[in-house]
Design a protein that fits this description.
By secondary structure, the chain is mainly α. It has two domains: 1-61; 63-76 and 128-252, no CATH class. The protein contains eleven helices and three strands, in the order αααααααββααβαα. The chain has a three-stranded antiparallel beta sheet with strand order 1-2-3. A hairpin with a 4-residue loop joins strand 1 and strand 2. The longest helix has 31 residues, at 128-158. It is globular. The mean pLDDT is 75.
Length: 252
């Protein structure tokens, strides 16, 4: 058995159990499962877990408005609050506080008696295993945050409705394009430093990168048909579902 093919198939088992693979990926993974008892047992367990979760009545509850549009609306409100100007008194508060700290720091040595010289602190010893676990945890958290931010961008593009040129049927996606470019830079850093720590997320990361590149290439004022094309590609590859499932797995 090819070890590389085995690892790739195992990474896809969760997505297979939730029917989040395209036809080619599903056929390739099922072919491996038929020849691998270990993966077959794991897939059976995932199917059983999914069946139990489906019995939860809360899983079928849906808000009256699609979740994607609620997410976009909340993000817009957050951005609006961050853009509001601070009150005039707030502009002077920080400089005045800084000046007071400097004056106190200058007078304090004269008011207090000299203290004995502190002993040199000993650096705590950290084992190699503990350091490795910390690096894995940080890598998984950064990757989960990257996928979550990428999902927000894709949702905002799918929900884009602000007209910038009604005569030609164009909508505004400039902010989403800029955020996509920033995320692609973060993706490059993840590839350079944390590939081994988040290997299970590699297929989803590749799909997300492809979608972000399409969004980053869009002009600020784009024809609605181009936005629709991106939306259809995201839905066809079930990318938002893959992002949610992988984010949960990384956050553990």
């Amino acid at each position: 058995m090819n070890p590389f093919a085995h690892r790739r198939a195992r990474r896809r088992l969760t997505l297979l159990a939730y029917e989040a693979l395209d036809a080619h990926e599903r056929e390739d993974t099922l072919s491996h499962v038929e020849a691998c008892p270990r993966c077959a047992r794991e897939l059976t367990g995932l199917w059983d877990l999914r069946a139990r979760l489906d019995l939860d009545p809360l899983r079928g509850a849906e808000p009256p408005v699609p979740v994607e549009f609620l997410t976009a609306r909340v993000q817009a409100r957050i951005d609006d609050v961050l853009k509001r100007p601070r009150p005039v008194w707030g502009r002077w508060l920080v400089p005045l506080a800084a000046a007071a700290v400097l004056v106190l720091a200058a007078l304090l040595p004269r008011l207090l008696p000299p203290s004995p010289a502190p002993r040199a602190a000993e650096a705590p010893e950290v084992s190699a295993d503990a350091l490795a676990r910390l690096e894995r945890t940080v890598a998984r958290e950064q990757t989960a945050r990257y996928l979550s931010d990428a999902g927000d961008v894709l949702v905002s593009v799918a929900a884009a409705s602000e007209d910038c040129d009604k005569r030609e049927g164009r909508v505004e996606v400039g902010e989403a394009s800029a955020r996509s470019r920033d995320l692609l830079v973060r993706r490059a850093l993840l590839v350079e430093s944390d590939r081994a720590e988040v290997a299970s997320a590699a297929p989803v990361l590749d799909d997300v990168e492809h979608a972000l590149r399409e969004v980053a290439a869009l002009p600020s004022c784009v024809r609605a048909v181009e936005v629709q094309r991106v939306r259809e590609q995201v839905e066809k590859r079930q990318l938002l579902m893959k992002i949610r499932l992988m984010t949960r797995e990384l956050e553990g």
